[in-house]
Amino acid sequence: TLQTGCYFPIEILHFRLIPDRDIAVSVEQLIHRSNEEKRLHGEWFDLDSDQGIEAVEHAIDIDEYFRGLET
Predict the structure, then answer these.
(1) Bridge partners of 39?
(2) CA angle at residue 19 from 1 to 12, to 5 degrees?
(3) What CA–CA distance (Å, rounded) separates 29 from 31?
(4) What kind and span of H or E run contains 47?
(5) Residue 54 parent element (H or E)
(6) Cα 11 from Cα 57, distance rounded (Å)
(7) Which pairing describes strands 44-45 and 39-41: parallel, antiparallel, or unpaired?
(8) Of 4, 5, 32, 60, which one's alpha carbon is 20 to 30 angstroms from that of 68?
(9) pTM as predicted
(10) DSSP string over 1-37
């Protein structure tokens, strides 16, 4: 679970349903690349909730844009 990897209590503040695994992997990679300077360790980043939500939404927007160019 997510909580196992984190030493303080966490809660889900935002989520987006991603239609398939390839898109999810792409979005995750975009989030990692665009927030590298804020990475603490592994999957954990030093972002407040607004920054985290913005990172997810921005990565989804970028992925959707580039997938639109492929069609």
Answers:
(1) 45
(2) 35
(3) 5
(4) none
(5) helix 49-70
(6) 18
(7) antiparallel
(8) 32
(9) 0.81
(10) -TGGG-SS----------SSHHHHHHHHHHHHHHTGG
